[in-house]
C-alpha cells in the first residue's frame, strides 16, 4: 500500500484560490447537471413558482484519499453481496421468521408484509425481481489496529441513490486535476495529487444496464393487440434529487433506446391500470401528455415507497399493492425491500449466531464467504437477557455503539451516550424495532472543504463513507440472469456528525484518490 497522505493534504488555499475554486465548482455543477432542486426553506415556493431553479449538489472541493486495497475488496465483494440478498429475498420462510418479531412492533414493516401476503394469496404473476443495490462502507482503523480495514455500514435494497451524481463529482475532480499547470482552474500542487485521478465511475452505465436487462427479460407484450414497452420510474413528489434520477433515464433512452416515464406516487393508480380480463396482469401506463397512447410497463423502478412518509393514506398502500401484483418486474419487490432491513443485517452479522452466509451462498467457496464476513461489524439484538442489551445499557460500552431502527434515508439512529436512557425508556416489546451495531472507527485525519447547496462553505476534519453499486436480476427459483458490480459513491461528512446521508443534509458528494 502506498503512503497514506500526511496532514499536509489537502494543500492549503489562499482566500483568492478558494474563492476561484468555489466559483469554478458552482458553475461546473450547473453546466453539467451536478445539481439538486433548492429546498423550499431557502427559496420559498412563492419565489420559485414554476419550480425552475436548481443549485449545486453539496460537493467537496478536493477528492478524498481512500486505501486501494479496501476499495478493491469492496468491489470484489459486490457480486457476492448481490447474490446474498437475492437469495434472502427468495427465501420467504427464513425472511418471514425474522419479520414475525418486527410485525408486532413496527407498523411500517407490518404493512409491507401484508402487501406481500395479499399478493402471494392471489398468486404472483412475475417470477423475476430486479435489485439496484448499494453496499456502504467505512474504513475501520481503531487505535492500535494493524492497518485500515473495510467495514459495511449497511446494505441498501431500495432507492439506492446518487449513482448519477457521484460519477459527475469524479468527472469534476478529474477536470480540476487535469487543467494545465498554472491555469487558475486547478488545485495548488501537492505530491499526493501528482499524476493522480479518481478511478473510473461507471455507476450510471451499471444501473441503467440493470434496468435494461430487466426490460429485455420481460419478453413480448402480453395484451392483444400488443402494446409498446416502457420502464416506469415511481418518484416522490417535489423530488429535490431529480437530476440523479434523470442521469439513469437519459441513458436508458439515448443508449438503450428504451422509453422511460416518471410518475409520482400519488398518481400511480390514476396513470396505470391492470386490465381485469387479462390473467397475466400487464401493467398499463397512460401518459398524461398523450392520453391516446397506451404503454405496457416491463419494469417499475421505485425511487419512492421506501419511507413511512411515502404512504400518506390507504390509497398509497393500494398503489404499492397494485404494482406488486402486476406483471411488471419490480425494483424492488416487497421481499427484496424487506431483505434490506437493518434487522436482517444484524442477524447475518451476529457474532455468535448461526452461519447463514454459507447456506445462502452455498455455491461460493468458503474463502470468499470468509472475506464477506470480514466486512461485518458486530451487531446484536436487544433481547432482555442478551449480550446486546448489556452492551447498550452500560455507558462505557454504549459509547462504541449505534442503535438503528428499520428505516432508510438517514437521520433515524441513536448514538453512544444517548443509547442507555433511550433503551430504558422503551416499552417491553419496543426494543424489537432496533438493532445495536458497533461503531466503525474511521481515521479522521483528512480535512476538506465543502460547498453546500445553499452556498455555505464549511472546512474541517472529515469522515468518508464509500458505496459500491451493483445490479442483479433473478428468478424466484434461484436462477440469476444478470449480476454486475460497477460504480461507486463517496460521501463525506464533518467528523463531529454521527449521521451520514446527502439528501438528509449531513454529508456531501465527494470522489476518491486511491493510495
Ligand atoms: P440509513 O439507511 O438511514 O442510511 P445507515 O445505517 O446508513 O442508515 O445509518 C446512517 C448513518 O449513520 C451512516 O451514513 C453513518 O454515517 C452512520 N452509521 C451507521 N452505522 C454506523 C456504524 N456502525 N459506525 C459508524 N457510523 C455509522
Ligand atoms: Mg439505507
Ligand atoms: Mg445509509
Automatic annotation (TrEMBL):
Q: Give the top-level enzyme category.
A: ligase
One GO cellular component term noted in the UniProt record for this chain: cytosol
UniProt EC number: 6.3.2.3
- Sites where the protein binds ATP: 154, 342, 404-413, 415, 437-440, 465, 493, 499
- Gene3D superfamilies per the record? 3.30.1490.50, 3.30.1490.80, ATP-grasp fold, B domain, Glutathione synthase, substrate-binding domain superfamily, eukaryotic, Glutathione Synthetase, Chain A, domain 3
The lineage's top-level taxon is Eukaryota
List the pathway annotation: Sulfur metabolism; glutathione biosynthesis; glutathione from L-cysteine and L-glutamate: step 2/2
Q: Which InterPro entries match?
A: Glutathione_synthase, Glutathione_synthase_a-hlx, Glutathione_synthase_C_euk, Glutathione_synthase_N_euk, GSH-S_sub-bd_sf, GSH_synth_subst-bd, PreATP-grasp_dom_sf
Q: Which residues bind substrate?
A: 134, 158-161, 239-241, 245, 303-306, 491, 502-503
Specify whether Repeat is a keyword of the entry.
Answer: no
Task: Tell me any Pfam family this protein matches.
Answer: GSH_synth_ATP
Cofactor mode of binding and number, as noted: Binds 1 Mg(2+) ion per subunit.
- Record's keyword terms, sorted: ATP-binding, Glutathione biosynthesis, Ligase, Magnesium, Metal-binding, Nucleotide-binding
Known SUPFAM superfamilies for this protein?
Glutathione synthetase ATP-binding domain-like, PreATP-grasp domain
Where, by residue number, does Mg(2+) bind? 154, 156, 408
* Any GO MF annotation of the entry: glutathione synthase activity
> Can the keyword Magnesium be found in this entry's annotation?
yes
The entry sums up its family as follows: Belongs to the eukaryotic GSH synthase family.
- What name goes with this protein? Glutathione synthetase
Amino acid at each position: 500500500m502506498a503512503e497514506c497522505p500526511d496532514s499536509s493534504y489537502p494543500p492549503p488555499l489562499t482566500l483568492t484560490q478558494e474563492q476561484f475554486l468555489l466559483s469554478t465548482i458552482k458553475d461546473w455543477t450547473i453546466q453539467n447537471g451536478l445539481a439538486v432542486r433548492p429546498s423550499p426553506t431557502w427559496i420559498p415556493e412563492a419565489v420559485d413558482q414554476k419550480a425552475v431553479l436548481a443549485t449545486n449538489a453539496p460537493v467537496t472541493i478536493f477528492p478524498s484519499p481512500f486505501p486501494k486495497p479496501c476499495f478493491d475488496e469492496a468491489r470484489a465483494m459486490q457480486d457476492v453481496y448481490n447474490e446474498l440478498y437475492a437469495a434472502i429475498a427468495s427465501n420467504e420462510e427464513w425472511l418471514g421468521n425474522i419479520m414475525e418479531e418486527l410485525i408486532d412492533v413496527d407498523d411500517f414493516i407490518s404493512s409491507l408484509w401484508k402487501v406481500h401476503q395479499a399478493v402471494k394469496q392471489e398468486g404472483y404473476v412475475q417470477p423475476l425481481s430486479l435489485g439496484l443495490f448499494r453496499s456502504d462502507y467505512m474504513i475501520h482503523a481503531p487505535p492500535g489496529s494493524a492497518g485500515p480495514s473495510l467495514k459495511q455500514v449497511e446494505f441498501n435494497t431500495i432507492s439506492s441513490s446518487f449513482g448519477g451524481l457521484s460519477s459527475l463529482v469524479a468527472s469534476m475532480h478529474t477536470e480540476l486535476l487535469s487543467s494545465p499547470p498554472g491555469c487558475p482552474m486547478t488545485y495548488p500542487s501537492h505530491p499526493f495529487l501528482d499524476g493522480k485521478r479518481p478511478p473510473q465511475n461507471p455507476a450510471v452505465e451499471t444501473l441503467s444496464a440493470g434496468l435494461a436487462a430487466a426490460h429485455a427479460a420481460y419478453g413480448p407484450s402480453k395484451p392483444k393487440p400488443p402494446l409498446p414497452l416502457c420502464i416506469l420510474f415511481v418518484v416522490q413528489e417535489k423530488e429535490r434529487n431529480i437530476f440523479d434520477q434523470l442521469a439513469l433515464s437519459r441513458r436508458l433512452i439515448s443508449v438503450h433506446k428504451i422509453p422511460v416515464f416518471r410518475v409520482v406516487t400519488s398518481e400511480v393508480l390514476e396513470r396505470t391500470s391492470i386490465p381485469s380480463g387479462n390473467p397475466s396482469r400487464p401493467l398499463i401506463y397512460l401518459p398524461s401528455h398523450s392520453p391516446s397512447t397506451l404503454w405496457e410497463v416491463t419494469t417499475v423502478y421505485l425511487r419512492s415507497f421506501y419511507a413511512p412518509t411515502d404512504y400518506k393514506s390507504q390509497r398509497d398502500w393500494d398503489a404499492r399493492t397494485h404494482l406488486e401484483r402486476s406483471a411488471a418486474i419490480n425494483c424492488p419487490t416487497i421481499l427484496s425491500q424487506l431483505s434490506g432491513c437493518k434487522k436482517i443485517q444484524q442477524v447475518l452479522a451476529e457474532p455468535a449466531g448461526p452461519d447463514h452466509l454459507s447456506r445462502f451462498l452455498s455455491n461460493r467457496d468458503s474463502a470468499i464467504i470468509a472475506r464477506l464476513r470480514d466486512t461485518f461489524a458486530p451487531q446484536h439484538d436487544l433481547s432482555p437477557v442478551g449480550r446486546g442489551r448489556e452492551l447498550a445499557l452500560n455507558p462505557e460500552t454504549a459509547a462504541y455503539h449505534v442503535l438503528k431502527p428499520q428505516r432508510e434515508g438517514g437521520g433515524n439512529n441513536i448514538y453512544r451516550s444517548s443509547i442507555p436512557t433511550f433503551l430504558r425508556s422503551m416499552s417491553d416489546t419496543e426494543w424489537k424495532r432496533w438493532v445495536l451495531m458497533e461503531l466503525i472507527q474511521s481515521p479522521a485525519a483528512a480535512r476538506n472543504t465543502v460547498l453546500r447547496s445553499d452556498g455555505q462553505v464549511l472546512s474541517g476534519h472529515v469522515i468518508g463513507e464509500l458505496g459500491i453499486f451493483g445490479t442483479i436480476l433473478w428468478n424466484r427459483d434461484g436462477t440469476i440472469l444478470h449480476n454486475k458490480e460497477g460504480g461507486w459513491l463517496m460521501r463525506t461528512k464533518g467528523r463531529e456528525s454521527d449521521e451520514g446521508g446527502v439528501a438528509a443534509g449531513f454529508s456531501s458528494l465527494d470522489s476518491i484518490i486511491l493510495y
